[in-house]
């Protein structure tokens, strides 16, 4: 059921962005058309994974990812909400939280099933926070590289924009990392009392 829902939601987003790309390119608005093409590619990631891999999907993460794409690509770039000033920072905060949840999902798939009873809450906290912060760093590397090699203006605010984005990513990840650490600690205490 999750896989079918992922396919439907991703396909809807891809088709929506493809329609926008056609509309904007035929009307000579190449920047918005290019953003829409980026939306097709980004929206196709969960679709591709659902169709061609056997990965089990964490549905809330996929839905959050698609909502983030709508917020960043459609509202932010196409409708111009990034011009509001605070929208970019808010989107980075949200992406930090989504990356942290993705880090937790990855962590749960990588550890041995019995290791969860012995894992340190501090490790869970640091792994989750580091995963979110590293994702933010990779995005800023992408923005910097695009600006340098393709004369784009993704880092419109220069160093201030980059640092504000990284801080927002880190705070979003920090919130989720704290919750994950607390939940892990509570689970350990429960296992100790039951054992």
Radius of gyration computed on alpha carbons: 19 Å
What sequence of helices (H) and strands (E) makes up the elements? Answer: HHHHHH
What is the number of strand segments?
0
Helix-strand makeup class:
mainly alpha
N/C terminus separation: 36 Å
Estimate the mean pLDDT confidence. Answer: 87
Give the fraction of residues assigned to helices: over 70%
Extract low-pLDDT stretches.
Answer: none
- Quick one: biggest sheet? none
The shape is globular
* Helical stretch tally: 6
Proportion of strand residues: under 5%
Structural domain count: 2
Description:
It is a single chain. The chain is mostly helical and 195 residues long. The protein has two domains: 1-59; 85-195, no CATH class. The protein has six helices and no strands. The protein has helices at residues 2-26, 30-52, 59-78, 86-110, 121-150, 158-194. Helix 1 (2-26) packs antiparallel against helix 2, helix 1 (2-26) packs parallel to helix 3 (59-78) and helix 2 (30-52) runs antiparallel to helix 3 (59-78). The radius of gyration is 19 Å and the shape is globular. The model has no long low-confidence stretch (mean pLDDT 87).
